[in-house]
Predict the 3D structure of the following.
Amino acid sequence: MNEPAGNRPRLLLVEDERALAGLLAGVLEASGYDVDLAGDGQRGLHLGLTRRYDVAVLDRGLPVLDGIDLLRALRRRGMAVPVLILTARTAVADRVQGLDAGAEDYLGKPFDLDELLARLRALRRIHLEQADLLPLPGGRRLNVARGSVQLPDGSLLVLSERECDLLAVLAARPGQVFERDELRRRVFPDADPAVVDVYVHYLRRKLGRSIVRTSRGVGYRLGESG
């Protein structure tokens, strides 16, 4: 069943076989996804770091940047969306390497289109269940879908869309320090770099200074509990 316009999940497809890429993009679009297609790993990296996705499908044997290296680079830079690796390399060692690199699922070629679509639905469902409430310092939780923070007493504190986006990036990788420019690219792609500091100030004003910690000379990370 297709999702209504304006509510379609966005999918990143990185596949260098043109015929297969075109076929997959068409099937996925018809199944309710908005698809961005990249024909090599470098283009996939650029899209993954500059646009927001609900799920990604990556080939392994990509030109310019191998699919495993692409996945590791995306994970290092904070991309938390679920990833399915689609490849002809199906040996156990290959599957283990892909899952250890950060993939949530691994499907070998040739494959059944209905199975691929079912796996993508499962990945999105699990991701949404996990991402609806992200833990924050002080027993609070970020409700990404509603753009609010649930406080320990059950009350809600409403955030602006950009405040929520910035806090969600930090909360999805609580131990990671994000460079200011990385946060700008992910949350404010068309804005001046100083906008990150401004929105960190907004979050601290609403949630306390400890909500976001500064790593001097590098950037920001989520504050620690306690």
Q: What stands out?
A: Residues 1-6 have pLDDT under 50 and may be disordered. Helices lie at 18-30, 41-50, 67-76, 92-100, 113-131, 161-172, 180-187, 195-207. The two ends are 45 Å apart (CA to CA). Residues 113-131 form the longest helix (19 residues).
